[in-house]
Specification:
heterodimer, A: about 240 residues, alpha/beta, Rossmann fold, about 35% helix, B: about 60 residues, mainly beta, transferase (chain A), tRNA methyltransferase activity (chain A), AlkB_tRNA_MeTrf/Diox (chain A), Methyltransf_11 (chain A)
Chain lengths: ~240, ~60
C-alpha cells in the first residue's frame, strides 16, 4: 500500500458520512428535481429482464422504478437514510413498492451477495466517491455482485459536459458543486468529473468488463459485465 | 424489510450471510420494521431501522 492509498482509505469513512449528511439535508428538494429517468437508462433497460435488479446510489428511486418493471425484484442501495425514506414513500405512492427493497449501504462496500444481480444501474453516483482507489473498488464491488451473464449501466459526470471548459490531456478533476436549499443556504457536494479515457481506464482496472462505452449529455456511460480482464463471463455480446 | 431480502444482502465487510433477529413486524404486510442482522462469520451487527437495514460498514455510521 502506498502512502496515497493509505490516505484514501482513511478518507473513505469521512467521505461516506459527509455524503450521507449532505443528501440527508437536501433529500426532499433533491428528489423533487429528479422526477424522470434518464433516456440512456431507459435505452439500457429496454428488452432486459432477470430475477434481481440492483440500483447503486438509488437516490429517490427514479431508476429503480423502470428497473422494477424489468425484473422480479429490485434492491436500491444508497448512503443517505433520508433519500431512502423519500424513495420508499415514492415507490408506495406510485405502486411499485412490492418489487422494491431499500438498503442503506456504501457503494464501495456493497452489502450484496456474490453473483446475484442480473440487471444493475449505477447512475450518477460513482462521481461522489473521493479517491480513485475507492471508485475502482466500487466498480469491482459491482462486478462481484453481478451474476454470470448479468449486465449493468454505469455513468458518471464527464469533462465533456458543456459547463466545463475544454481541458488538455485525459485526466479528470475533483470539484465541489453547491446545492442551494430553499432558505438560501448552500450545501456542497464532492464530485470527481471523469475524462472519458479515465472512465474507461477505471473500468479496466476494476473487475468489470466493458461491453460498450459512450458519452451522452455530458456524462460518461458504460454497459458492463462481470469478469474484467480475467476473462469472459461466458456470455456472448456479439450482435 | 422483506424477509426474502436475506437471499440477496450480505455483510458489507466479509460478504458472508446475515442472520435475522426480528424485534417488530408490520401487522399488515409482515415486513420487518425493527430488528437486527448479524454476520454469521464476523459477528458484526447491523440494525434494521424503520424498515430499512443499515448495512453501512460500522466506521461509516454516524
Amino acid at each position: 500500500m502506498t502512502p496515497g492509498d493509505e490516505r484514501e482509505t482513511r478518507e473513505a469513512a469521512p467521505n461516506a458520512r459527509a455524503l450521507a449528511a449532505t443528501y440527508d439535508r437536501i433529500a426532499e428538494q433533491f428528489s423533487a428535481t429528479r422526477e424522470y429517468p434518464w433516456p440512456e437508462v431507459e435505452s439500457f433497460l429496454d428488452a432486459r429482464e432477470g430475477g434481481v435488479g440492483l440500483d447503486v446510489g438509488c437516490g429517490n428511486g427514479r431508476h429503480a422504478e423502470p428497473l422494477a418493471a424489468r425484473v422480479d425484484r429490485v434492491v436500491g442501495v444508497d448512503v443517505s437514510r433520508d433519500l431512502l425514506g423519500v424513495a420508499r414513500r415514492r415507490a408506495r405512492e406510485r405502486g411499485y413498492a412490492d418489487a422494491l427493497s431499500f438498503v442503506r449501504g456504501d457503494a464501495a462496500a456493497l452489502p450484496v451477495a456474490d453473483a446475484t444481480v442480473d440487471v444493475g444501474v449505477y447512475v450518477a453516483a460513482l462521481h461522489h466517491l473521493r479517491g480513485r482507489d475507492r471508485r475502482v473498488a466500487s466498480l469491482s464491488e459491482l462486478a462481484r455482485a453481478l451474476a454470470p451473464g448479468g449486465r449493468a449501466l454505469v455513468s458518471a459526470w464527464s469533462t465533456e459536459h458543456d459547463r466545463f471548459d475544454p481541458r488538455e490531456g485525459d485526466a479528470g478533476f475533483d470539484t465541489s458543486v453547491d446545492w442551494t436549499l430553499p432558505d438560501g443556504e448552500t450545501v456542497d457536494r464532492f464530485y470527481h468529473v471523469y475524462h472519458p479515457a479515465e472512465f474507461r481506464a477505471d473500468l479496466e482496472a476494476s473487475g468489470l468488463r466493458t461491453v460498450e462505452a459512450f458519452v451522452s449529455s455530458g456524462n460518461c456511460y458504460a454497459v458492463v459485465a462481470p469478469g474484467g480482464s480475467s476473462g469472459s463471463d461466458g456470455s456472448d455480446d456479439a450482435g | 424489510m422483506k424477509e426474502s431480502l436475506l437471499d440477496i444482502i450480505c455483510c458489507p465487510l466479509d460478504k458472508h450471510d446475515l442472520e435475522l433477529t426480528v424485534e417488530e413486524r408490520d401487522e399488515e404486510d409482515g415486513e420487518i420494521v425493527e430488528g437486527l442482522l448479524v454476520c454469521t462469520d464476523c459477528g458484526e451487527e447491523y440494525p434494521i431501522e424503520e424498515g430499512i437495514p443499515n448495512l453501512l460498514p460500522p466506521d461509516m455510521r454516524e
